[in-house]
Structure formats: C-alpha cells, structure tokens
Amino acid sequence: NMTLRKWDFGGYTNITQALVAGPMNVQLGATLTIDPGVVLKMGSFTYHPWNHTFNVYGSLVADGTPAEPIVFTSIRDDSAGNPADTNTDGAGTVPAKNNWRWFYFDEVSDDLTAILDNCELRYGSSSVNNYGLVYMTSASPTISNCLFEQGGHGIATFGTSAPTIDTCVFD
Fold this sequence. Notes:
0% of the residues lie in helices and 35% in strands. The chain has no helices and 17 strands. It is mainly beta. The model has no long low-confidence stretch (mean pLDDT 86). The protein has strands at residues 2-4, 18-20, 24-26, 31-34, 39-42, 54-56, 59-63, 70-74, 103-105, 115-117, 119-122, 134-137, 142-144, 147-149, 155-158, 164-166, 169-170. The strands form three sheets. It has a six-stranded parallel sheet, with no helix packed on it.
C-alpha cells in the first residue's frame, strides 16, 4: 500500500510528485491512495505514449476536493504542477490528445474502494482502439465530480462493467 501526498519543500508548494514514464500498476491486494492536490504527469521526455498507462488490479483511492483536485495530465502540460514546465522545454512542446494512454480498471480491481473523485484527467486516451481516458473490463469503480479534458474519449466499459458515474464533465 502507498499514499502519494502533496509535497512542499524549501518554500515551493505542491511540487509535481510523480512523472509516470511507463506503466504504473496497482497490484492485486494493494491500495494506492492519492491525496488532494497531487499532480501526476504521464509520458516520457520523448514522444511515445503507448506505455504510459495507469493499471488498477487492486484499489485506487484518488479522492480530491473541489479546491484541490487531483490532476492526471501530460508531461507536456505546463498549466499544472510545480514546476509547471516539468519537461523543462519552455514552449517547445504543447500537450495534445493521446499524449498518454489511460486508466484501466481490471475485473479483479476492488470495486468497493476504487474511486476517482474530484479529479482532472487531461490529454490521455487512445485514438487507435477507442478506449477512453478511463476504461474497464468487468469492473465497477466510482467516478464522480471529474473533468475529462482533451482526451480522445471519456469512459469505455467492457464485459460486465457497471461503474457509478456522477457529476462528471466531458470536454
């Protein structure tokens, strides 16, 4: 089990905590808790989004607040995190749809505790196979108060998935 917390240091607040440069897996029986305000940036410093996935086989508790949403975005997104220009290229790159892939909830994920609440999911998805920023196979997480922005698709369900989706915005 692990918790990602906001990180303040040396007068800097909410330092971008995690750069996900490959698949990030929450294993069966494990719980990843992400505190409000955390910013996770997906993607590598070179363009190849296909390995940048967030796979949930255990439980993900991403429970932000309206004042401090949890942000999942592209490494090229200079509008979130600290430093905002995480890839240190100035205006050399801009975020775009499909910069990273998706959140995947597997059929063995813990439906009772898996939650995305007050989260912003930006610049992910896949134009190749029509999966959403969040997709699931026979899983039923709770997704509420989330903003899905600049992704190829919002949420895709397969198998016997029956997620609870409430008060989300798809832009």
